[in-house]
Design goal:
single chain, 166 residues, Diaminopimelate Epimerase, Chain A, domain 1, 4-stranded mixed beta sheet, 8 helices, globular
Length: 166
């Protein structure tokens, strides 16, 4: 029964749901927030929103976490000089936020801290406040990264700041 409900949710979440929740002005605000964030720490942030999974992925039991790990790899978030990439992944159909961090970050930031950021974002998203939730999530990640990875003299921008819509 749960699998069927999940299939229906993923079937009915099309690209229109992305644009309704993440219109151009929200995407611009996210890009600006990521750009500003990365001046305050030595990490790299990628922000990705996906409306739904293909039904074959849902039928195969792919979890939002598994998909986030796939996206982390496909977008090369792991490919930073200091292994300091962070993916904020939102799957709208499953109403789920996942954070995948590279090994350089996971040595200092606990899974519970990442999970708290996800819960903050999900709380806003449940209230229909996608811009506020996104910006709050970026700010929370910024706080974690700034505490453990202050910016150095060499702080290149290795990953795009613009959000990716899948």
């Amino acid at each position: 029964m749960v699998k069927l409900k999940r299939m229906v949710r993923n079937f009915f979440h099309g690209p229109w749901s992305l644009r309704r929740r993440f219109p151009f002005h929200v995407l611009a605000a996210i890009e600006t927030a990521v750009q500003g964030s990365e001046t305050r720490h030595g990490g790299e942030i990628r922000f990705v929103v996906e409306s739904a999974l293909p039904l074959v992925s849902v039928a195969a039991g792919q979890s939002p976490r598994d998909r986030a790990v796939d996206v982390f790899s496909q977008l090369g978030v792991w490919d930073t000089e200091e292994n300091n990439g962070v993916l904020l992944y939102i799957l709208l159909a499953d109403r789920d936020v996942e954070i995948v961090a590279d090994r350089g970050l996971n040595k200092k930031i606990s899974p519970a801290e990442w999970e708290e950021v996800c819960r903050i974002m999900e709380t806003y998203f449940r209230a229909g406040q996608f811009e506020k939730g996104s910006l709050a999530g970026i700010e929370a990640v910024t706080g974690l990264l700034a505490r453990h990875f202050p910016p150095g003299a060499h702080n290149p921008n290795e990953l795009p700041n613009k959000p990716t819509l899948l």
